[in-house]
């Protein structure tokens, strides 16, 4: 009896999760490159402490300013979807992340190399193909509305 209940539950659950979404917007899905699940591939970039020891505070400040300018440019170009620093030190020396909208890993690598803090060795990177919501780029429009002070 228990196995029949389990089978019926799985059938009901499976049919529920594969039901058509009444709010589905084909035009929006197509414009964002969404698959049937509303998802698409991106590239996750993990920035970690690099090998460069830049002790000149002015030089380091200039490179980090360039880092922020590059983030804004990549976001404006629609290539950078998410960016942010780690808020605590960690055993892996991770400093932050990017999620890039790139077609290939080579494109993601070339986008990362536009960042002066990466080129200078302040940050090293690990890059992984990642699967996430195709709607991620839409949050950026709201971000400006909740940002009181820009870097």
Automatic annotation (TrEMBL):
Keywords: Signal. The keyword Signal applies. Residues 43-130 form the YCII-related domain. SUPFAM superfamilies: Dimeric alpha+beta barrel (SSF54909). Pfam families: YCII (PF03795). Residues 1-19 form the signal peptide. InterPro entries: Dimeric_a/b-barrel (IPR011008), YCII (IPR005545). Belongs to the YciI family. This is Uncharacterized conserved protein YciI, contains a putative active-site phosphohistidine.
């Amino acid at each position: 009896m228990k196995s029949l209940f389990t089978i019926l539950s799985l059938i009901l659950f499976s049919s529920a999760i594969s039901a058509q979404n009444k709010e589905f917007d084909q035009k929006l899905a197509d414009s964002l490159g969404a698959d049937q699940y509303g998802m698409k591939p991106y590239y996750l970039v993990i920035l970690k402490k690099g090998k460069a020891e830049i002790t000149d505070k002015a030089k380091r400040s200039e490179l980090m300013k360039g880092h922020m300018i590059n983030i804004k440019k990549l976001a404006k170009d629609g290539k950078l979807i998410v960016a942010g620093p780690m808020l605590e030190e960690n055993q892996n020396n991770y400093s932050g992340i990017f999620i890039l909208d790139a077609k290939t890993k080579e494109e993601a690598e070339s986008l990362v190399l536009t960042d002066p803090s990466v080129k200078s060795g302040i940050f090293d990177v690990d890059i992984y193909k990642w699967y996430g919501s195709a709607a991620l780029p839409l949050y950026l429009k709201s971000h400006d509305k909740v940002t009181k002070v820009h870097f």
